[in-house]
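As a warm-up, study this chain.
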Amino acid sequence: MLLLDTNLLSPDWVQEHAASHLGPLFTSSVSAQELLGMQKPDSEGAYRYALPALDERVHGPGRGMPPELLVRWMSEHAKKRPVSKQTDRLVVPRSRLQPESLELGHVAVAAAHECGYDGLLRVYASRGLHRRMLKPVLGKWEFLRREINGVIPLDDEIAAQAAALADRFVDAKLHVKGTKRNTMNDMLVAATSHITGVPLATDDAQLGRFYRSLGWSVQERDSLILATPSPLDLAPAEPRAPRGESRGFINRPANLRKRIDYNRLPLR
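Now compare it with the structure written out below.
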């Protein structure tokens, strides 16, 4: 079982390492958002689009609507607000890397992947992205649905852990690549690995050194870095779910996942 960093989310990487029998592959909702162009990389905290959260964890306005009304609602709502007002919201605490920030749509994108809400993704992506970006993004969505067993959404515990990791990153005087948001995304992915206990795979050498400085077990195989979290308590003490307890994502084998269908409605 591995948690793949954003840079490794590609068909070529999965095919190249298929013979290694790495087990089920997961990714963070942060990496999924980066891959799908949801976040604006040149703007701190801004989004191109964010899905409404339509599942049992966050009740959405589409529940109980007749199919024809739901299609109309999706299209009209996405046209006016590609960043849905019905999306989920999560506050990431202030750190020495960046002020308190608001994350959007992490439960929504995880639920869309888990439940096969292909049409929902297409409607909102088509409203939030330039036309030239849409086809590549739909291809990446199909890759996620086909090859990735689960998208792990952010929660309060992961956010608190990420803020603590960000403080350690700043204390280590490491280089911030691109924007502070890019680096904070790295901390959110690392925190997801730390809280869930799923080893993290990346090709970023600086992050590999950072994980080693935290006491993680870090192995290097050519350009691939496998980092297994240590039990260090970096964040404020909070009750943790037992490692064997579900955190809201499902290890669903490929043969049991729903086939990609952009006409499928987000109905339970």
